[in-house]
Amino acid sequence: MKIRVGFGFDVHQLREGHPFILGGVLLEHHKGAFGHSDADVLAHAVCDALLGAANKRDIGHHFKNTDERWKGISSLILLKECAKMLHDEGYSINNVDAMLCIEAPKINPHVPAMKKHLALAMGISEDDISIKATTNETMGFIGREEGVVAYAVCLIQK
Ligand SMILES: Nc1ccn([C@@H]2O[C@H](COP(=O)(O)O)[C@@H](O)[C@H]2O)c(=O)n1
Ligand SMILES: C[C@@]1(CO)OP(=O)(O)OP(=O)(O)OC[C@H]1O
């Protein structure tokens, strides 16, 4: 059996009045993430973890941020595509563990819904994805709510 680990990181700006989609969930907040797609930083970090595990470059390599096809697209669709690339090579996704660094809003109440969306996109069980959150204790660009960061790791096997 071949087992590989993958790591992903992403960061997006937070801007006043933008929709805030995280893990496929639309959060009620005065600020939202800005990007070419729906700027779902959590889904993007998971995409990069999957792609990294399979040595398949990164999300921007497959979905260029200058391509009109991806403008405003749901990142769950991009995640589904990344999972498909792995499945097509015979890999299955063992588990994913993700960490959000975000000052506000509180993420914990939304974790079950986020797990459901991401698990469905990857074709895995909700039990095989973990989502956690921390503030940055008011420090730096995260603490000032200028941006949001996500990290993810995964194991894949074939
Ligand atoms: N946006 C966030 C940040 C944190 N949490 C939860 O609160 C706990 C304490 O966070 P600290 O940054 O003060 O250590 C953290 O462990 C999370 O459970 C959250 O839900 N949303
Ligand atoms: C997802 C893509 C493509 O729409 O755009 P963004 O939403 O800007 O996200 P980012 O994490 O900066 O990079 C990957 C992109 O190519």
Automatic annotation (TrEMBL):
Pfam families: YgbB
Organism the protein comes from: Pelobium manganitolerans
Family (UniProt): Belongs to the IspF family.
A molecular function (GO) term: metal ion binding
Record: residues binding 4-CDP-2-C-methyl-D-erythritol 2-phosphate: 10-12, 36-37, 58-60, 63-67, 134-137, 141, 144
Co-factor remark: Binds 1 divalent metal cation per subunit.
Protein name (Swiss-Prot/TrEMBL): 2-C-methyl-D-erythritol 2,4-cyclodiphosphate synthase
Gene this protein is translated from: ispF
Gene Ontology biological process terms in this record: isopentenyl diphosphate biosynthetic process, methylerythritol 4-phosphate pathway; terpenoid biosynthetic process
Pathway noted in the entry: Isoprenoid biosynthesis; isopentenyl diphosphate biosynthesis via DXP pathway; isopentenyl diphosphate from 1-deoxy-D-xylulose 5-phosphate: step 4/6
Role noted for this protein: Involved in the biosynthesis of isopentenyl diphosphate (IPP) and dimethylallyl diphosphate (DMAPP), two major building blocks of isoprenoid compounds. Catalyzes the conversion of 4-diphosphocytidyl-2-C-methyl-D-erythritol 2-phosphate (CDP-ME2P) to 2-C-methyl-D-erythritol 2,4-cyclodiphosphate (ME-CPP) with a corresponding release of cytidine 5-monophosphate (CMP).
